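Sharing a chain and its predicted structure for anyone who wants a worked example. Both blocks are below, sequence first, tokens second.
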Amino acid sequence: MKTYNNPGCRCGCGVAGTVLGVIFGIIVASLFAAGLTPLIINAIWVALGIGGAALIYILVLSALSSCGNLCCNLEKCLCRNIKCLLAGSLGTILSVLVLTAISLEITSTAVTVLVGIGTFFLIFLIASLVSFVKCLACSQ
């Protein structure tokens, strides 16, 4: 992809994904600290699946975006959203791997912060995917 020398190629998820991620991260971390998330382990495994599937989706679309003039819209939308998609998927995967490696005690402040960070990256990834699909739908 020709992302260099292209000033129009920027992150398309922007402020909305960041703000939503921070809000939901704080909410889920607060609920975890209060002990109101009994199925947090299941949610962590689901987040790992979503992050892995998104990373595979990004890699497949990156391979398909070089198919010539037929995929111009795909390449443009991927160029706009690739930074946010990769940051969201890799952040989700790494934070979930850390959460699976440690003991999830609700009394630990560090674990509560890690749960909030994992939630932030997951919501950021979902907002990036929505922004990418919106770009594909609107570009004709």
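Comments welcome. Confidence is low (pLDDT under 50) at residues 1-7.
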